[in-house]
UniProtKB/TrEMBL annotation:
Highest taxon above the source species: Bacteria
Official protein name in the record: SDR family oxidoreductase
Keywords carried by this UniProt record: Oxidoreductase
Keyword Oxidoreductase: yes
Amino acid sequence: MSTHSTDPVRFDGRVALVTGAARGIGAAIAVRLAELGATVAAADILPHHRWEQDALPAGGPHTRHHLDITSGDSCRRTVEEVLAVHGHLDHLVNNAGVVARGPAATTTEEDFRRVIDVNLTGTFRMSQAAYPALRAAEAASVVNIGSTNGHIAVLDTLAYCVSKAGVMHMARVLALEWAPDGIRVNAVGPTIVPTDMTRDVRADDAYMADKMAGIPLGRMAAPRDVALTVAHLLSPAAAMTTGQTVFVDGGVLIH
Ligand SMILES: NC(=O)c1ccc[n+]([C@@H]2O[C@H](COP(=O)([O-])OP(=O)(O)OC[C@H]3O[C@@H](n4cnc5c(N)ncnc54)[C@H](O)[C@@H]3O)[C@@H](O)[C@H]2O)c1
């Protein structure tokens, strides 16, 4: 019987690109991957002075990149920067996202397009830009950040809901297409997480009472909860798992 000396959840010598890493869930993912030994390329549209203080440990090999996932050129340039500095790219986390709230009947086409352009088409652009590098890497993996809203219908977030359904299904299709290249693609679907994205609804007592009543474990997901599951799915500990969505939802989807 062979024994493995390497811890299957470690990322030593591996390079991970995380989009939307300036704050919130993306920052927590960047920190967790760095804790596990990864070299993290953290990318965001925000200028560096607006990044959360603890978005990445100071020093070390990690890099920050200016990225707008609504631009294919920006996605390709970011991958080029990562390859120029780090030499390879092993993992991609498609985390950058935006939300727009309001009834479907009055949502403007402009708002609808913006949410789809960032969340859904942005995930496609970034995945496509990273593909040649991921194909060249050993045991590469990708995680898309979906949402419970992509699985159940939630009022007043039509574009967001369908964009998240899209990125979770995109994980399945890419998993199938890229399996011959040895690239695994999965998704993570959190319930509500206390970040800037949910600042408005968290101030709404009626909304929160209803939301919390639907979470059997009785609390919001922390950014760290999401980051731990993302790290697991990216790592060799999940070497036989591809095309799946893991919900980090405290049981929302049980009932
Ligand atoms: N907060 C929640 O309750 C929740 C629940 C489920 C899923 N999610 C998803 O988790 C991901 C992270 O969300 P969060 O809660 O940390 O939100 P957040 O607003 O705190 O962070 C999103 C990050 O994405 C970046 N971003 C936005 N547009 C970009 C673009 N065009 N190019 C590059 N970066 C861009 C933002 O600058 C920001 O740093 C999103 O995909 C979101 O949909 C969030």
